[in-house]
């Protein structure tokens, strides 16, 4: 672990706040950056993030700040902004700790960059790791048992620094060196969770949902292998684990978005006045584009793009079902 300073968490949405609370659960000092100085002040005063995680009482050793420069002093930094804003937030930091642990799940829509590419461009001297798995924020904040992939670009040496800083009695990271695999898994599963929500919203049954998870996983494997992810990673916590979690629960914002669309609401209606992020909606179009450029078949991802574009959910399902019969192993 890098010497000195608190552990930093960049982003005080639900996940950043939950991670901060988990890290502070053993009395360690944690510095939490909120974009809004008012929210930082309220968190320090009330020991609660009323906007994003209202039910969790936050440990005393968390100090929230609206001063992003103060995050440069942290011994390591967990980056927990929405994927589309990671680049703009990181470029506001004057300097960086040795280790950046990326916790956002998505692909940068404007450029097609994965989060590690965004972070490397901003902080070329830092070592990048990715923390991703089946982890609803409210459960982690409540101290419920959680296992997660910690993929370290710096290999076991970086793991030896980070694992003791991140692991707690109920929060259990597993080592990987497959950064791209962990990133693909988290980005793709959010899109698939929207599709599974639609199945739920249209009341198409549990068989359909299980089929969609399995065929969606096949899409994740095809895309992942094309960009250098290992199958093992995609079968693990950050891949299959997170797919199962978010494709089966209305606690997932992505699943809930798909469900609302399946029930007949428009995207505008669902997103109106909403503070929280549904990453799959931002990632789906760029993922479909990247897949097309690479010649990778991702019909479920394309269906989600059509849905977000306003196409009738029942028509999209009918089109998916009408495709030619093929081998389960077809590429
Ligand atoms: N919630 C969860 O259970 C999990 C989430 N994640 C991932 O963590 C990442 C963050 O999600 P989460 O914490 O849930 O976020 P939330 O949906 O809880 O909150 C949205 C966050 O985005 C911030 N934000 C909005 N606009 C901007 C902007 N222009 N620049 C910078 N920040 C902005 C908000 O700050 P402000 O209040 O200032 O607008 C707020 O902190 C996502 O990639 C998500 O996929 C991963 C695992 C679990
Ligand atoms: O990534 C998550 C759990 O692992 C959270 O999923 P949602 O963003 O869909 O709520």
What does this structure look like?
The radius of gyration is 19 Å and the shape is globular. It has an 8-stranded mixed beta sheet, sandwiched between helices. The model has no long low-confidence stretch (mean pLDDT 97). It has 15 helices and 8 strands. The N and C termini lie far apart (42 Å). The chain folds into 2 domains: 7-177, NAD(P)-binding Rossmann-like Domain (Rossmann fold, 3-Layer(aba) Sandwich); 180-321, N-(1-d-carboxylethyl)-l-norvaline Dehydrogenase, domain 2. Helices cover 48% and strands 12% of the residues. The chain is an alpha/beta fold. The site of NADPH dihydro-nicotinamide-adenine-dinucleotide phosphate has 26 residues, from helix 1.
